[in-house]
Amino acid sequence: MSPADSLLSWSKGALGQLVDAAGRQALAVAREGVNRKVRVGVTGLARSGKTVLTTALVHNLLLARARPELMPFLEVAEQRRVIDVRQIPPRRRRPFPFDAAIDL
């Protein structure tokens, strides 16, 4: 085997390992991004603005994909990386009255 063939054989092996490692990293990042969930709990004294805060946050998050300028402080919105935002009602508690709060 010539030195050139040895180098070519070595580079294919090293390159293959690099590509495999990069592929595994990309899959791990994609899985984490898809499965990432954020739960928010808001507590405070009576009449301290919990409903206003929650309503504004949810409303702006729901609009973040179409209008990222609404949340310039949120990097994922500013960089247009918001994939999906959904309202999911709680299973055991009564749901937050989002639609009624938006209509106020």
Short description:
With 104 residues, this protein is mainly alpha-helical. It has helices at residues 3-35, 50-63, 75-78, 98-102.
Task: Pick out its properties.
104 residues; mainly alpha; 2 domains; 4 helices; 0% strand
Can you describe what's shown?
Helix content is 54%, strand content 0%. With 104 residues, it is mostly helical. The longest helix has 33 residues, at 3-35.
The succession of helices and strands, N to C, reads HHHH
Structural class: mainly alpha
Mean pLDDT: 74
Q: What's the number of helices?
A: 4
The gross shape turns out to be: elongated
Please outline the major beta sheet: none
Please report the distance between the alpha carbons of the first and last residues.
Answer: 80 Å
| Approximate helicity band | 40-55%
Secondary structure tally: strands: 0
Q: How much is the radius of gyration in Å?
A: 24 Å
Number of domains: 2
Low-confidence stretches: none
Strand content: under 5%
Chart the SSEs and their pairings.
Elements: H1 3-35, H2 50-63, H3 75-78, H4 98-102
